[in-house]
TonB-dependent receptor plug domain-containing protein
Amino acid sequence: MCLNILAKPLISKTYWLTFLISLIFLACFSQNTSTDNLEKSFVEYTQLPRDIVYTHLNKSVYIKGETLAFNAYVFDKNDKRLSKFTTNLYCSIADENGKTIKSKMVLVNEGVANGSFSVDSLFTSGNYVFKAYTNWMKNFDEQNLYIQNIKVIDPEIESNVIPKVISSKLDAQFLPEGGHLLANTENTVGVVIKDELGFGIPNLECQLLNNNNGVINFKTNQFGIGKFMFIPEEGKKYEVSMKFEGKKQIFIIDSAELSGVTLSLGDFYGKVALRISTNKSTLRYIRKQPYKITIHNGFEFKTIFFEFKEDLHVTKYINYDDLSTGINIFTVFNENNSPLLERLFFKYDGINFMHTNEATSKKSLDSMEISLPLKDVDKSLPNHFSISVLPEGTKSYNHHHNIISSTFLQPYVNGFIENATYYFTDISRRKQYELDNLLLTQGWSSYDWNKIFYNPPSSSFEFETGISFKATVNNSKTLKYVMYPSSFNDLEIFEITEGINTFEKKELFPFDDEKIRLSEVKKNDKTKKSSIYLQFNPSTIPDIENYTKILPLKETVFFDSELLQPFLQTSWTEYEQLNEVIIEVDKIQDRIEKLQKSIYGRVDVFDDTKRKNYIDFETYIRTKGYNVFHFNGDFVISKLGGLNRNKSPIVYIDNRLILDYNELSFYNMSIVDYITINETGFGETFRGEGTGGVIKIFTDPTIFNKNNPELSSFQEIDIPLTFETSKTFYTPKYNSYQSRFYKEFGVIKWLPKLSLDENGNISFKIGNQEGPNIKLFIEGTANDGSFISEIKTVNLE
């Protein structure tokens, strides 16, 4: 071929110039096309929205008979703000074998939910796993759920527990920065040395040795993490020696690759330097080939191009301003879009940390009020905080994550991080350096490029909003059906066309033991019991399997002879009986609050007691500031005092305007659900203004039938899965508040639904304490996207 070219006549310079320009254009076009494909794959992989959940547990070590209480915060993964859409959150506790012991569904409202589990007879001494997740999270491989190991102690079994004895054999991992160890060039190697349980070995002195007896000394930090730099030579073997518990242990380092590229990252607190290096034997093959670095955080995506020329090193500087707050994932690709190296970097700048000022306390006869000032937060908008109040010397609160590490860090790594809370409390330059060393050892992120290219997630698992059902009508020609109201669901009419025997309902929010009640509506508008089959979704609590291995609790729990006597005065079963009374009150109050948001005036929700006390409407309305009398055969209602005195109100029954008050004479209250009274008529359109106010009566015909089942005209259907009402947390009573047990494992208070008061304080009350100090474990988020995670000791004297 070369001979043939040489034999051809000379080609003009213009032709060669055009040819060269074409080559450059094609190269650029190919590079751009390659980048477009890369970015397209990333966008497709990340286009489905993702939630992440953090759950604040009141403790990590529970005594059998106590209550595990929690406050869950569900965030949009991209902007780290509370989710506006998520409603269904599943919480479960499983034993060490993965068997689910308890589970429930709780309602997420504006991104926050709370609930509890009784640590009852279903539990025995041992480790358990708490999980909080949504069905939607099952579509993704990243760890967006919350998972935490907890421990349960049954004193009847575990008095004088013998601490677990573990082997002194170590697990040592040597992880080249970027993912590859390259011969004949400088490499940074991260080191993780753990014990049998998976915890890091602190302050362990190690030596890197080669077969020429060269030595490099390095040491692990408090979490068993370290690093060293060296230039591995081709053909030489390297090993690391360390002495632990009096025994010398040797680990072999994998041989360095003869060709390739390697990566090192430097943080200059304002800029990040990425240095991509190769060796001489590789350079001649890759010189002037197009490479690229992508930067992403699971949402935003950027690309930097580079190539090796004559030098063995290429350095790229990225300003902090060009990086995302939180995790930044740097990946090096070759011209074929094959990922070669990856490194994680964390940018603290941009995370808004809140801190409380010095606490104040005010003592009364039976309680103590504590106030935590929190400045520069808009108290007029929603803010959400939870606090676990424990004795100062507690050993029962040892979570690996707080709200910040669980939101900004854990979902982006593959492994589980020991004591991740450490990196996000009292932040210093040293902690930033230690977090970077941790990320050096994490290797590839939770965003797998093979899946990004070839297996993007699909919405196989639904994004759930409440409960839905599909109704199938059995052998009926009725075309209209009514679903009666419940605590948080309104009355609804379903009309179907002839020949269709199904209808659907979505976004139902049933609680506890509520049921669906349905009737057929005949042509004369009378109702009869229906015969309908319902299919519910969801009908069971889904399991979730895509989560990482988690670490057990760090501390070993000891018991002594003083714990052989009972230390809880009240058992968990008694707490459950008390809860049932409180739940009914809470449900009514929650319903009033929900109704109050959508109307003007007062809301009066009826129960059986009120229906018996007010046998007719006349008796009831006299107690609400209205005069009622009969005049010339007419029933008259007028306002007693205040604005629009002596004027008559506008009255509705089930949104039907009452034109003749006589309809209200001797009106039976036996089916009244609730009544709203707007005394001024403001906000009720022009019809209500200038009158004696607006009164609206809402009824529920099933109330009468429920009390008289033999006359029932509706079909009652069990709902297989409902939301669980949040129970009031009861603090256990202890036989002694001076015992070591109480000081180390006792509970003072759990406060899941805190916000700011009018003075900008987080305020709450606790019972009077015998000790001088208490410890507060505070987690939460404010309306401006800021976070708080504090451990605060409060002096009560």
Observations:
- The mean pLDDT is 86.
